[in-house]
Batch of 3 targets.
Target 1
Amino acid sequence: QVQLVESGGGSTQSGGSLSLTCVASGVTYRYYLLAWFRQAPGKEREGVAAIDSRGITTYADSVKGRFTISQDNAKTTINLQMNGLVTEDTAMYYCAARQGVMYTSALGRASYNYWGQGTQVTVST
C-alpha cells in the first residue's frame, strides 16, 4: 500500500518562497509518477507539477518558471520549490502517486489513486 506524507508549506507574503516535501513509502512499481495538486476553497483540485521515476517533469502553465519539482536519488521523496508566490497560490497542496510514466494528462487528478493528507500554503499581500 502506497502512503504519502507531505510536509512544509506555511504562510508567506506575496513574492516569497516556500518548499513542500512528499515522502512516498510502499511504492513497488518500476515506473511511477509523483505529483502535486492543489485545491483552493470553492475550487476544483488542480494539478501543479508532476515527475516520473525517470525524472521527466511537467508543470501547469500557472506555475511554470516559478515552481520546481524534484526528486531524491531514491526517487521516493519529491520536493516542490515555490518561488515568486502570489495570493492565487493559496491552497491546500496534496501529493499524489500512480503507476506509469509521464504522459500528456499527467496533471489530471482522475488517474491518481494514492493521495496524501495535504499541507496548507497561504500567501498574503
Target 2
Amino acid sequence: QVQLVESGGGLVQAGGSLRLSCAASGRVRSIYTMGWERQAPGKQRELVAHITDSGITTYADSVKGRFTISKDNAKATVYLQMNSLKPEDTAVYYCKTSLRFGPVERQYDEDYWGQGTQVTVSS
C-alpha cells in the first residue's frame, strides 16, 4: 500500500499561483504514475495532470500552458505548479498514484488517492 499526504491548497485571486505537493510513503518503489485529479461541486472528477516514472507528462486541455507537474523521485513527491489560476479551477484536488506489479505479460495496477486539498480561486 501507499499513503499520500497533500499540501498547498488555499484561496487565491484569479491570475495568482499555488503549488500543490503530494508526498508518498509505503511501497513507493512500485509507483508507476503520480498525478492530480480534481472535482468541482456538482461536477465529475477529472484528470488534471500526471507523470510517469520515466517522466512522461499528461495534462488536461484546460490546464495546458498554465499548470506544470514535476516530481522528486528521492522524496517520492509530486508537485503541481498552478499559474494564471481561474475561478473555474476551483475544486478539491486529489493526489493519485498508480502502483504497478507483476511481469510484463501479467501486469496489474493498484490506484490510491489522497484526502484532497481545497483550491479556491476568487474572481
Target 3
Amino acid sequence: QVQLVESGGGSVQSGGSLRLSCAASGYTYSRYCLGWFRQAPGKEREGVAAIDSDGRTTYAGSVKGRFTISQDNAKNTLYLQMNSLKPEDTAMYYCAARPGSGLVAPLAILFGYWGQGTQVTVSS
C-alpha cells in the first residue's frame, strides 16, 4: 500500500522560503515519476514540478528558477524547495507518484497515488 505524507507547509511573507517534504512508503517501483501539485481555493489543480527515477526534472513556468524539486532515495523522501515566494503561490500543495518511466511532467491525470496535502500561505 503506497502512502505519501507531505509536511513543511506554513505561513511566510512574500520573498520568503519553505521546503516541503513528502515521505513515501510502500513504493517499490524501480522506475517512477514523482510530482508536486498545488490547488488554490476556487482554482484547478496545477502541476508544479516533476522528477523521475533518473533525476530528470521539469517545472511549471510560474515556478521555474524559484522552486527546486529533489529526492533522497535513501530516505524515500521527495522535496520541494521554494524560494522567493509570492502571494500567488498560496495553495494546498500535494505530492503524487506514478510507476514507470516516460514523460516527466506534472500532469495530474498521469498520477495515481496522492498525499493529503500541506498548506502554504504567502502574505504580501
